[in-house]
Amino acid sequence: MIRTLIETGGNAQQTIHGLLRRLLEEGIVDALMVPQRVASDDNVVQTLVRDPAKLAAMAPLAPVIPVTAARLASNLTMTGVQERIGVVMRDCEIRALVELVKLQQAKRENLFIVGIDCLGTYEVADYADLSRQGVDVVAEALSQAAEGDPVPHAGASFRAACQMCERFVPNLADLHIGLFGMNPDESILVGASEEVAERLGLEVRPVPDKREQVIAALIEKRTEERDDAFAEFHRKVNDIAGLQAYLSTCIRCHNCMVNCPICYCKECIFRTPVFDHESERYQMWAARKGAIHLPTDTLLFHITRLNHMVTSCVGCGMCDGACPSNLPIAVMFRAIGQNVQAIFDYEPGRSLEEEVPVATFREDELEGV
Amino acid sequence: MTEEPFEPKIIAFLCNWCTYTGADLAGTSRIQYPPNIRVIRLMCSGALDPVYVSKALLEGADGVLIGGCHPGDCHYQSGNYKARRRIAILKSILSQLGFDEERIWLRWISASEGRLFADTVTEMVAALKEKGPNPLKGAWDI
Fold this sequence. Notes:
The structure holds two protein chains of two kinds.
Chain A: E1 2-7, H1 12-25, E2 31-37, E3 44-49, H2 69-77, E4 85-89, H3 91-102, E5 111-116, H4 124-132, H5 137-145, H6 160-163, E6 175-178, E7 187-192, H7 194-199, H8 210-236, H9 240-246, H10 255-259, H11 279-289, H12 298-309, H13 318-322, H14 329-343
Parallel strand pairs in A: 2-4, 4-5, 5-6
Antiparallel strand pairs in A: 1-7, 2-3, 6-7
Helix pairs in contact in A: 2-3, 8-14
Chain B: E1 10-15, H1 19-28, E2 37-42, H2 50-58, E3 63-68, H3 79-96, E4 104-108, H4 114-131
Parallel strand pairs in B: 1-2, 1-3, 3-4
Protein backbone atom coordinates (compact mmCIF):
# COMPACT_ATOMS: atom_id res chain seq x y z
CA MET A 1 0.00 0.00 0.00
CA ILE A 2 1.33 3.38 -1.05
CA ARG A 3 0.33 6.46 0.93
CA THR A 4 0.80 9.79 -0.72
CA LEU A 5 -0.62 13.29 -1.04
CA ILE A 6 -2.35 14.75 -4.04
CA GLU A 7 -2.79 18.46 -4.54
CA THR A 8 -6.31 19.79 -4.68
CA GLY A 9 -5.73 23.28 -6.05
CA GLY A 10 -8.27 24.71 -3.64
CA ASN A 11 -11.04 22.26 -4.47
CA ALA A 12 -10.86 18.97 -2.58
CA GLN A 13 -14.33 17.90 -3.66
CA GLN A 14 -13.50 18.22 -7.32
CA THR A 15 -10.23 16.36 -6.79
CA ILE A 16 -12.00 13.46 -5.10
CA HIS A 17 -14.72 13.41 -7.77
CA GLY A 18 -12.01 13.37 -10.43
CA LEU A 19 -10.26 10.47 -8.73
CA LEU A 20 -13.47 8.43 -8.59
CA ARG A 21 -14.28 9.26 -12.21
CA ARG A 22 -10.86 8.03 -13.26
CA LEU A 23 -11.48 4.67 -11.62
CA LEU A 24 -14.22 4.17 -14.21
CA GLU A 25 -12.40 5.81 -17.10
CA GLU A 26 -9.19 3.85 -16.52
CA GLY A 27 -11.15 0.61 -16.24
CA ILE A 28 -9.90 -0.02 -12.70
CA VAL A 29 -13.57 -0.70 -12.00
CA ASP A 30 -16.35 -1.65 -14.41
CA ALA A 31 -18.99 0.11 -12.39
CA LEU A 32 -19.01 2.52 -9.49
CA MET A 33 -21.49 2.70 -6.62
CA VAL A 34 -21.44 6.24 -5.32
CA PRO A 35 -23.90 8.62 -3.62
CA GLN A 36 -25.34 11.33 -5.86
CA ARG A 37 -27.52 14.32 -5.04
CA VAL A 38 -31.19 13.92 -5.93
CA ALA A 39 -32.78 16.61 -8.14
CA SER A 40 -34.40 18.33 -5.15
CA ASP A 41 -30.90 18.59 -3.67
CA ASP A 42 -31.99 17.73 -0.12
CA ASN A 43 -30.80 14.12 -0.06
CA VAL A 44 -28.34 11.80 -1.70
CA VAL A 45 -28.97 8.28 -2.97
CA GLN A 46 -26.56 5.54 -3.87
CA THR A 47 -26.23 5.04 -7.61
CA LEU A 48 -24.61 2.31 -9.67
CA VAL A 49 -22.84 4.03 -12.53
CA ARG A 50 -21.24 2.56 -15.63
CA ASP A 51 -21.21 5.70 -17.78
CA PRO A 52 -18.81 8.35 -16.42
CA ALA A 53 -21.06 11.01 -17.94
CA LYS A 54 -23.67 10.05 -15.35
CA LEU A 55 -21.53 11.10 -12.41
CA ALA A 56 -22.46 14.77 -12.59
CA ALA A 57 -24.31 14.86 -9.25
CA MET A 58 -21.66 12.85 -7.38
CA ALA A 59 -21.59 13.54 -3.63
CA PRO A 60 -19.27 11.01 -1.97
CA LEU A 61 -18.63 13.36 0.95
CA ALA A 62 -22.27 14.20 1.70
CA PRO A 63 -22.54 13.59 5.47
CA VAL A 64 -25.59 11.37 5.40
CA ILE A 65 -26.26 7.60 5.06
CA PRO A 66 -29.85 7.04 3.90
CA VAL A 67 -29.18 3.33 3.23
CA THR A 68 -26.03 1.55 4.31
CA ALA A 69 -23.77 0.84 1.34
CA ALA A 70 -22.89 -2.53 2.90
CA ARG A 71 -26.37 -3.88 2.25
CA LEU A 72 -26.25 -2.58 -1.32
CA ALA A 73 -22.83 -4.09 -1.97
CA SER A 74 -24.34 -7.38 -0.85
CA ASN A 75 -27.15 -7.02 -3.40
CA LEU A 76 -24.61 -6.22 -6.12
CA THR A 77 -22.37 -9.22 -5.56
CA MET A 78 -24.11 -11.96 -3.63
CA THR A 79 -25.31 -14.15 -6.47
CA GLY A 80 -22.19 -13.60 -8.53
CA VAL A 81 -21.11 -11.06 -11.14
CA GLN A 82 -18.20 -10.85 -13.56
CA GLU A 83 -17.68 -7.14 -13.05
CA ARG A 84 -15.40 -5.38 -10.64
CA ILE A 85 -17.49 -2.88 -8.76
CA GLY A 86 -16.10 0.16 -7.03
CA VAL A 87 -18.00 1.01 -3.85
CA VAL A 88 -17.55 4.29 -2.00
CA MET A 89 -17.89 3.71 1.73
CA ARG A 90 -17.32 4.99 5.22
CA ASP A 91 -15.59 2.70 7.67
CA CYS A 92 -18.82 1.63 9.42
CA GLU A 93 -20.09 0.48 6.04
CA ILE A 94 -16.85 -1.32 5.27
CA ARG A 95 -16.95 -3.11 8.62
CA ALA A 96 -20.56 -4.15 8.01
CA LEU A 97 -19.53 -5.37 4.57
CA VAL A 98 -16.72 -7.44 6.09
CA GLU A 99 -19.28 -9.11 8.35
CA LEU A 100 -21.60 -9.75 5.40
CA VAL A 101 -18.76 -11.27 3.38
CA LYS A 102 -17.99 -13.62 6.27
CA LEU A 103 -21.69 -14.44 6.57
CA GLN A 104 -21.57 -15.29 2.85
CA GLN A 105 -23.88 -12.43 1.92
CA ALA A 106 -21.42 -10.53 -0.28
CA LYS A 107 -18.38 -11.32 -2.38
CA ARG A 108 -15.21 -9.41 -1.63
CA GLU A 109 -13.46 -10.44 -4.85
CA ASN A 110 -15.88 -8.41 -6.96
CA LEU A 111 -15.48 -5.27 -4.91
CA PHE A 112 -13.01 -2.44 -5.11
CA ILE A 113 -13.55 -0.55 -1.89
CA VAL A 114 -13.01 3.19 -1.86
CA GLY A 115 -12.87 4.21 1.78
CA ILE A 116 -13.14 7.86 2.71
CA ASP A 117 -12.31 9.29 6.15
CA CYS A 118 -15.63 10.05 7.81
CA LEU A 119 -16.06 13.52 9.26
CA GLY A 120 -19.43 12.62 10.85
CA THR A 121 -22.93 12.24 9.46
CA TYR A 122 -26.40 13.66 10.09
CA GLU A 123 -29.73 11.85 10.27
CA VAL A 124 -31.48 11.94 6.90
CA ALA A 125 -34.13 14.45 8.00
CA ASP A 126 -31.49 16.76 9.55
CA TYR A 127 -29.36 16.62 6.41
CA ALA A 128 -32.43 17.48 4.33
CA ASP A 129 -33.26 20.45 6.58
CA LEU A 130 -29.72 21.80 6.42
CA SER A 131 -29.63 21.38 2.64
CA ARG A 132 -32.92 23.21 2.24
CA GLN A 133 -31.52 26.05 4.35
CA GLY A 134 -28.67 26.27 1.86
CA VAL A 135 -25.99 25.16 4.34
CA ASP A 136 -22.95 23.67 2.58
CA VAL A 137 -22.30 20.91 5.10
CA VAL A 138 -19.56 19.33 2.96
CA ALA A 139 -17.52 22.54 2.84
CA GLU A 140 -18.06 22.96 6.57
CA ALA A 141 -16.79 19.45 7.28
CA LEU A 142 -13.76 19.84 5.00
CA SER A 143 -12.80 23.08 6.73
CA GLN A 144 -12.60 21.14 10.00
CA ALA A 145 -10.59 18.22 8.66
CA ALA A 146 -7.16 19.71 9.39
CA GLU A 147 -7.81 20.10 13.13
CA GLY A 148 -9.55 16.74 13.12
CA ASP A 149 -12.31 17.44 15.61
CA PRO A 150 -15.42 17.86 13.47
CA VAL A 151 -18.37 19.66 15.02
CA PRO A 152 -21.84 19.72 13.48
CA HIS A 153 -23.48 22.80 12.01
CA ALA A 154 -24.67 25.22 14.70
CA GLY A 155 -27.99 24.00 16.10
CA ALA A 156 -27.72 20.55 14.51
CA SER A 157 -26.07 17.39 15.76
CA PHE A 158 -24.33 14.40 14.29
CA ARG A 159 -25.99 11.01 14.54
CA ALA A 160 -25.62 9.51 18.01
CA ALA A 161 -23.63 6.62 16.54
CA CYS A 162 -21.15 9.10 14.99
CA GLN A 163 -20.71 10.99 18.24
CA MET A 164 -19.29 7.86 19.86
CA CYS A 165 -17.53 6.53 16.76
CA GLU A 166 -13.84 5.79 17.23
CA ARG A 167 -13.41 4.04 13.85
CA PHE A 168 -13.73 6.85 11.34
CA VAL A 169 -10.62 5.99 9.30
CA PRO A 170 -11.12 3.18 6.77
CA ASN A 171 -9.03 0.14 7.48
CA LEU A 172 -9.59 -2.33 4.65
CA ALA A 173 -9.97 -0.10 1.58
CA ASP A 174 -8.42 -0.68 -1.85
CA LEU A 175 -8.32 3.06 -2.35
CA HIS A 176 -8.20 5.21 0.74
CA ILE A 177 -8.98 8.91 0.70
CA GLY A 178 -7.72 10.58 3.87
CA LEU A 179 -8.95 13.93 5.17
CA PHE A 180 -8.02 14.05 8.85
CA GLY A 181 -4.99 16.21 9.55
CA MET A 182 -4.92 17.41 5.94
CA ASN A 183 -5.56 20.89 4.70
CA PRO A 184 -8.03 19.92 1.96
CA ASP A 185 -7.59 23.25 0.19
CA GLU A 186 -4.02 22.18 -0.49
CA SER A 187 -3.87 18.40 -0.49
CA ILE A 188 -5.52 15.18 0.58
CA LEU A 189 -4.11 11.75 1.38
CA VAL A 190 -4.50 8.87 -1.02
CA GLY A 191 -3.61 5.27 -0.23
CA ALA A 192 -3.61 2.54 -2.87
CA SER A 193 -1.78 -0.55 -4.02
CA GLU A 194 1.27 0.06 -6.22
CA GLU A 195 -0.62 -1.10 -9.27
CA VAL A 196 -3.59 1.19 -8.70
CA ALA A 197 -1.32 4.08 -7.76
CA GLU A 198 0.54 3.66 -11.03
CA ARG A 199 -2.62 3.48 -13.09
CA LEU A 200 -3.88 6.63 -11.39
CA GLY A 201 -0.50 8.30 -11.94
CA LEU A 202 0.12 8.96 -8.23
CA GLU A 203 3.57 10.08 -7.16
CA VAL A 204 4.80 9.21 -3.71
CA ARG A 205 5.00 12.19 -1.39
CA PRO A 206 5.43 12.16 2.39
CA VAL A 207 2.36 12.39 4.60
CA PRO A 208 2.58 14.98 7.40
CA ASP A 209 2.96 13.62 10.96
CA LYS A 210 0.09 15.82 12.02
CA ARG A 211 -2.38 13.34 10.57
CA GLU A 212 -1.57 10.54 13.02
CA GLN A 213 -1.62 12.96 15.96
CA VAL A 214 -4.99 14.36 14.99
CA ILE A 215 -6.46 10.90 14.54
CA ALA A 216 -5.08 9.63 17.86
CA ALA A 217 -6.55 12.62 19.69
CA LEU A 218 -9.98 12.13 18.16
CA ILE A 219 -9.96 8.38 18.87
CA GLU A 220 -9.20 9.17 22.50
CA LYS A 221 -11.98 11.74 22.72
CA ARG A 222 -14.56 9.56 21.02
CA THR A 223 -13.60 6.53 23.09
CA GLU A 224 -14.34 8.56 26.21
CA GLU A 225 -17.70 9.62 24.80
CA ARG A 226 -18.41 6.03 23.87
CA ASP A 227 -17.56 4.74 27.33
CA ASP A 228 -19.73 7.42 28.92
CA ALA A 229 -22.63 6.42 26.67
CA PHE A 230 -22.14 2.74 27.53
CA ALA A 231 -22.00 3.50 31.25
CA GLU A 232 -25.15 5.59 30.96
CA PHE A 233 -26.91 2.72 29.20
CA HIS A 234 -25.90 0.17 31.82
CA ARG A 235 -26.94 2.58 34.57
CA LYS A 236 -30.41 2.97 33.02
CA VAL A 237 -30.87 -0.67 32.10
CA ASN A 238 -29.81 -2.79 35.04
CA ASP A 239 -32.91 -4.92 35.23
CA ILE A 240 -35.76 -6.02 33.00
CA ALA A 241 -37.91 -3.14 34.28
CA GLY A 242 -35.14 -0.80 33.14
CA LEU A 243 -35.17 -2.43 29.71
CA GLN A 244 -38.95 -2.07 29.54
CA ALA A 245 -38.63 1.62 30.38
CA TYR A 246 -35.84 2.02 27.82
CA LEU A 247 -38.03 0.48 25.10
CA SER A 248 -41.37 1.83 26.35
CA THR A 249 -42.19 3.66 23.11
CA CYS A 250 -41.27 0.79 20.79
CA ILE A 251 -44.08 0.25 18.28
CA ARG A 252 -42.70 -3.09 17.05
CA CYS A 253 -42.37 -1.91 13.45
CA HIS A 254 -39.15 -3.93 13.00
CA ASN A 255 -37.53 -0.96 11.25
CA CYS A 256 -34.35 -1.35 13.31
CA MET A 257 -34.07 -4.89 11.96
CA VAL A 258 -34.97 -3.93 8.40
CA ASN A 259 -32.31 -1.22 8.28
CA CYS A 260 -29.61 -3.22 10.06
CA PRO A 261 -26.88 -4.25 7.63
CA ILE A 262 -26.15 -7.37 9.67
CA CYS A 263 -29.78 -8.58 9.92
CA TYR A 264 -29.68 -10.26 6.54
CA CYS A 265 -32.08 -13.16 7.10
CA LYS A 266 -34.61 -13.30 4.31
CA GLU A 267 -37.02 -14.96 6.69
CA CYS A 268 -36.53 -13.32 10.05
CA ILE A 269 -38.24 -15.44 12.67
CA PHE A 270 -40.26 -12.38 13.72
CA ARG A 271 -41.71 -12.15 10.24
CA THR A 272 -42.71 -15.79 10.02
CA PRO A 273 -45.88 -17.46 11.32
CA VAL A 274 -43.96 -18.54 14.47
CA PHE A 275 -45.42 -15.48 16.16
CA ASP A 276 -48.84 -15.63 14.51
CA HIS A 277 -50.44 -17.51 17.33
CA GLU A 278 -53.81 -19.23 17.24
CA SER A 279 -56.53 -16.94 18.50
CA GLU A 280 -57.43 -19.24 21.39
CA ARG A 281 -53.84 -19.05 22.67
CA TYR A 282 -54.18 -15.37 23.53
CA GLN A 283 -57.21 -16.15 25.71
CA MET A 284 -55.26 -18.91 27.39
CA TRP A 285 -52.31 -16.66 28.18
CA ALA A 286 -54.54 -13.80 29.34
CA ALA A 287 -56.39 -16.23 31.60
CA ARG A 288 -53.12 -17.50 33.08
CA LYS A 289 -51.62 -14.09 33.84
CA GLY A 290 -54.82 -12.07 34.16
CA ALA A 291 -53.64 -9.77 31.36
CA ILE A 292 -51.10 -9.80 28.54
CA HIS A 293 -49.33 -7.13 26.56
CA LEU A 294 -50.32 -6.83 22.88
CA PRO A 295 -48.73 -7.24 20.50
CA THR A 296 -46.93 -10.02 22.34
CA ASP A 297 -43.17 -10.55 22.38
CA THR A 298 -41.92 -6.98 21.98
CA LEU A 299 -39.15 -7.41 24.52
CA LEU A 300 -38.43 -10.84 23.08
CA PHE A 301 -37.91 -9.24 19.67
CA HIS A 302 -35.13 -6.99 20.92
CA ILE A 303 -33.53 -9.65 23.11
CA THR A 304 -33.57 -12.12 20.21
CA ARG A 305 -32.11 -9.62 17.79
CA LEU A 306 -29.34 -9.07 20.32
CA ASN A 307 -28.75 -12.81 20.45
CA HIS A 308 -28.74 -13.23 16.72
CA MET A 309 -26.52 -10.37 15.60
CA VAL A 310 -24.83 -8.53 18.45
CA THR A 311 -21.56 -10.41 17.91
CA SER A 312 -21.37 -8.77 14.48
CA CYS A 313 -22.81 -5.34 15.35
CA VAL A 314 -20.49 -2.68 13.93
CA GLY A 315 -22.29 0.22 15.60
CA CYS A 316 -23.23 1.99 12.37
CA GLY A 317 -26.41 3.34 13.97
CA MET A 318 -28.74 2.66 11.04
CA CYS A 319 -31.22 1.28 13.61
CA ASP A 320 -31.37 4.66 15.38
CA GLY A 321 -32.21 6.48 12.18
CA ALA A 322 -34.90 3.96 11.29
CA CYS A 323 -36.75 4.14 14.60
CA PRO A 324 -39.94 6.20 14.40
CA SER A 325 -39.84 6.59 18.18
CA ASN A 326 -36.22 7.77 18.18
CA LEU A 327 -35.19 4.99 20.53
CA PRO A 328 -31.44 4.84 21.19
CA ILE A 329 -31.06 1.31 19.87
CA ALA A 330 -27.48 1.60 18.62
CA VAL A 331 -25.95 2.36 22.02
CA MET A 332 -27.81 -0.62 23.49
CA PHE A 333 -26.36 -2.94 20.86
CA ARG A 334 -22.88 -1.47 21.12
CA ALA A 335 -22.82 -1.47 24.93
CA ILE A 336 -24.02 -5.05 25.20
CA GLY A 337 -22.08 -6.10 22.12
CA GLN A 338 -18.77 -4.91 23.54
CA ASN A 339 -19.01 -7.43 26.39
CA VAL A 340 -20.31 -10.27 24.25
CA GLN A 341 -17.65 -9.73 21.58
CA ALA A 342 -15.00 -9.70 24.32
CA ILE A 343 -15.88 -13.32 25.21
CA PHE A 344 -14.57 -14.35 21.80
CA ASP A 345 -11.92 -11.62 21.46
CA TYR A 346 -13.82 -10.64 18.36
CA GLU A 347 -14.16 -7.22 16.80
CA PRO A 348 -16.72 -6.99 14.01
CA GLY A 349 -15.24 -5.76 10.74
CA ARG A 350 -11.66 -6.01 11.94
CA SER A 351 -10.57 -8.74 9.59
CA LEU A 352 -11.86 -10.95 6.82
CA GLU A 353 -9.95 -13.94 8.21
CA GLU A 354 -11.47 -14.16 11.71
CA GLU A 355 -14.66 -16.21 11.60
CA VAL A 356 -17.83 -14.72 13.06
CA PRO A 357 -18.28 -16.17 16.57
CA VAL A 358 -21.64 -17.80 15.86
CA ALA A 359 -20.29 -19.68 12.84
CA THR A 360 -17.43 -21.41 14.58
CA PHE A 361 -16.31 -22.87 17.92
CA ARG A 362 -13.30 -24.16 19.78
CA GLU A 363 -13.24 -27.44 21.61
CA ASP A 364 -11.42 -26.00 24.60
CA GLU A 365 -13.41 -22.95 25.62
CA LEU A 366 -16.28 -21.75 27.79
CA GLU A 367 -15.90 -24.60 30.27
CA GLY A 368 -17.99 -22.83 32.87
CA VAL A 369 -21.07 -22.16 30.74
CA MET B 1 -54.74 -21.79 55.27
CA THR B 2 -51.03 -22.05 54.62
CA GLU B 3 -49.43 -20.84 51.40
CA GLU B 4 -48.40 -23.60 49.00
CA PRO B 5 -44.61 -24.11 48.98
CA PHE B 6 -42.85 -22.74 45.89
CA GLU B 7 -42.35 -25.40 43.24
CA PRO B 8 -40.11 -24.14 40.43
CA LYS B 9 -41.14 -24.81 36.86
CA ILE B 10 -38.26 -25.79 34.60
CA ILE B 11 -38.43 -25.94 30.82
CA ALA B 12 -35.92 -28.56 29.61
CA PHE B 13 -34.65 -28.64 26.04
CA LEU B 14 -33.06 -32.06 25.63
CA CYS B 15 -31.19 -33.46 22.70
CA ASN B 16 -32.66 -36.59 21.20
CA TRP B 17 -29.47 -38.66 21.20
CA CYS B 18 -28.04 -38.10 24.65
CA THR B 19 -29.89 -36.21 27.35
CA TYR B 20 -33.42 -37.20 26.28
CA THR B 21 -32.35 -40.80 26.18
CA GLY B 22 -30.63 -40.30 29.53
CA ALA B 23 -33.93 -38.98 30.92
CA ASP B 24 -35.63 -42.02 29.47
CA LEU B 25 -33.12 -44.26 31.21
CA ALA B 26 -33.75 -42.48 34.50
CA GLY B 27 -37.42 -43.30 34.00
CA THR B 28 -37.03 -46.92 32.99
CA SER B 29 -34.55 -47.42 35.85
CA ARG B 30 -37.19 -45.98 38.22
CA ILE B 31 -34.77 -43.35 39.54
CA GLN B 32 -36.75 -40.77 41.49
CA TYR B 33 -36.38 -37.04 40.75
CA PRO B 34 -38.64 -34.03 41.27
CA PRO B 35 -41.46 -33.63 38.72
CA ASN B 36 -40.65 -29.95 38.09
CA ILE B 37 -39.44 -30.23 34.51
CA ARG B 38 -41.38 -29.92 31.27
CA VAL B 39 -39.35 -31.60 28.56
CA ILE B 40 -39.09 -30.47 24.96
CA ARG B 41 -37.18 -32.90 22.77
CA LEU B 42 -34.82 -31.48 20.15
CA MET B 43 -32.76 -33.34 17.60
CA CYS B 44 -29.66 -31.50 18.85
CA SER B 45 -28.77 -28.88 21.44
CA GLY B 46 -27.25 -27.00 18.49
CA ALA B 47 -30.74 -26.73 17.01
CA LEU B 48 -31.97 -24.61 19.90
CA ASP B 49 -32.47 -20.98 18.97
CA PRO B 50 -31.96 -18.71 21.99
CA VAL B 51 -35.35 -17.16 21.21
CA TYR B 52 -37.06 -20.15 22.85
CA VAL B 53 -34.95 -19.95 26.01
CA SER B 54 -35.64 -16.22 26.26
CA LYS B 55 -39.34 -16.75 25.63
CA ALA B 56 -39.60 -19.34 28.41
CA LEU B 57 -37.88 -17.03 30.88
CA LEU B 58 -39.83 -13.92 29.87
CA GLU B 59 -43.04 -15.91 30.25
CA GLY B 60 -42.09 -16.75 33.80
CA ALA B 61 -40.39 -20.15 33.73
CA ASP B 62 -38.20 -20.37 36.82
CA GLY B 63 -35.39 -22.10 35.01
CA VAL B 64 -34.33 -23.50 31.66
CA LEU B 65 -32.24 -26.65 31.39
CA ILE B 66 -30.46 -27.35 28.12
CA GLY B 67 -29.13 -30.88 27.85
CA GLY B 68 -26.77 -32.09 25.14
CA CYS B 69 -24.17 -34.75 24.40
CA HIS B 70 -20.77 -34.48 26.06
CA PRO B 71 -18.20 -32.43 24.08
CA GLY B 72 -16.86 -34.63 21.31
CA ASP B 73 -19.90 -36.92 21.39
CA CYS B 74 -22.39 -34.86 19.36
CA HIS B 75 -24.39 -37.03 16.97
CA TYR B 76 -23.93 -34.24 14.42
CA GLN B 77 -20.22 -33.69 15.23
CA SER B 78 -20.33 -30.15 16.61
CA GLY B 79 -23.88 -29.08 17.49
CA ASN B 80 -23.16 -29.02 21.22
CA TYR B 81 -20.11 -26.77 20.75
CA LYS B 82 -22.27 -24.33 18.81
CA ALA B 83 -24.95 -24.53 21.48
CA ARG B 84 -22.33 -23.70 24.10
CA ARG B 85 -21.40 -20.50 22.25
CA ARG B 86 -25.03 -19.50 21.82
CA ILE B 87 -25.78 -20.07 25.49
CA ALA B 88 -22.66 -18.11 26.48
CA ILE B 89 -23.92 -15.22 24.34
CA LEU B 90 -27.44 -15.49 25.74
CA LYS B 91 -26.18 -15.54 29.33
CA SER B 92 -23.99 -12.50 28.75
CA ILE B 93 -26.88 -10.56 27.22
CA LEU B 94 -29.42 -11.50 29.88
CA SER B 95 -27.06 -10.80 32.75
CA GLN B 96 -26.24 -7.40 31.25
CA LEU B 97 -29.98 -6.76 31.20
CA GLY B 98 -30.11 -7.56 34.90
CA PHE B 99 -31.69 -10.99 34.52
CA ASP B 100 -30.29 -13.79 36.67
CA GLU B 101 -28.31 -15.93 34.18
CA GLU B 102 -28.03 -18.73 36.73
CA ARG B 103 -31.58 -19.72 35.91
CA ILE B 104 -30.13 -21.16 32.68
CA TRP B 105 -28.30 -24.46 33.01
CA LEU B 106 -26.38 -26.07 30.16
CA ARG B 107 -25.40 -29.65 30.99
CA TRP B 108 -23.85 -32.55 29.13
CA ILE B 109 -25.64 -35.78 29.99
CA SER B 110 -25.19 -38.92 27.92
CA ALA B 111 -27.72 -41.64 27.11
CA SER B 112 -26.20 -43.91 29.77
CA GLU B 113 -26.27 -41.28 32.52
CA GLY B 114 -29.80 -41.67 33.87
CA ARG B 115 -28.49 -41.15 37.38
CA LEU B 116 -26.72 -37.93 36.38
CA PHE B 117 -29.91 -36.68 34.75
CA ALA B 118 -31.95 -37.29 37.89
CA ASP B 119 -29.25 -35.71 40.07
CA THR B 120 -29.06 -32.68 37.78
CA VAL B 121 -32.79 -32.06 37.97
CA THR B 122 -32.78 -32.55 41.74
CA GLU B 123 -29.88 -30.14 42.09
CA MET B 124 -31.48 -27.57 39.81
CA VAL B 125 -34.80 -27.67 41.61
CA ALA B 126 -33.01 -27.12 44.91
CA ALA B 127 -31.02 -24.20 43.48
CA LEU B 128 -34.16 -22.58 42.07
CA LYS B 129 -36.05 -23.06 45.35
CA GLU B 130 -33.19 -21.18 46.97
CA LYS B 131 -33.56 -18.35 44.44
CA GLY B 132 -37.33 -18.17 44.61
CA PRO B 133 -39.72 -17.59 41.72
CA ASN B 134 -38.73 -15.88 38.48
CA PRO B 135 -39.48 -12.19 39.13
CA LEU B 136 -41.13 -11.96 35.69
CA LYS B 137 -43.74 -14.58 36.56
CA GLY B 138 -47.18 -13.12 36.08
CA ALA B 139 -45.93 -9.83 34.61
CA TRP B 140 -48.34 -8.78 31.87
CA ASP B 141 -46.21 -6.02 30.41
CA ILE B 142 -43.37 -8.07 28.93
